[in-house]
Design brief:
This protein is mostly beta strands. Helices cover about 15% and strands about 45% of the residues. The protein contains two helices and six strands, in the order αβββαβββ. Strands 1-2-3-6-4 form a five-stranded mixed beta barrel. The N terminus is likely disordered.
Length: about 110
């Protein structure tokens, strides 16, 4: 089960991206757009993307209603959601968004609410 807010402000997301190792195993909350299988279709599970270059690849999301909404009204990442997750690893990439380095966190599960 997830507890309340760990991070929410853009400045906190900037810190999250600059010191990702400090947040491994810690609960994080942020606003993001989520897409099943990722924007490019190359993610197993769900990819959630913030406007500040922080990505979350989650193997699964909960609750079931969020999965249904992402498959329906919000297909293709059309809805902003609040996600809570506990990252177990991360990587950085300059190939995902040309001209920008993004941080990609990996999590087993994310709780998504709209």
């Amino acid at each position: 089960m997830f507890s309340p807010l760990a991070l929410a402000a853009s400045t906190s997301l900037q810190e999250l991206a600059s010191k990702p190792q400090d947040y491994l195993g810690q609960e994080v909350e942020m606003e993001a757009y989520c897409v099943k299988n990722g924007r490019s279709g190359d993610v197993i599970g769900y990819e959630c993307t913030s406007q500040d270059g922080v990505y979350v690849d989650a193997d699964d999301i909960e609750p079931e209603a969020a999965k249904e909404k992402l498959a329906g009204d919000c297909a293709g990442g059309g809805c902003m959601a609040t996600i809570q997750f506990v990252p177990h690893s991360y990587s950085t990439s300059s190939a995902i968004e040309p001209g920008k380095t993004v941080t990609v966190f990996n999590a087993e599960k994310a709780k998504v609410s709209f």
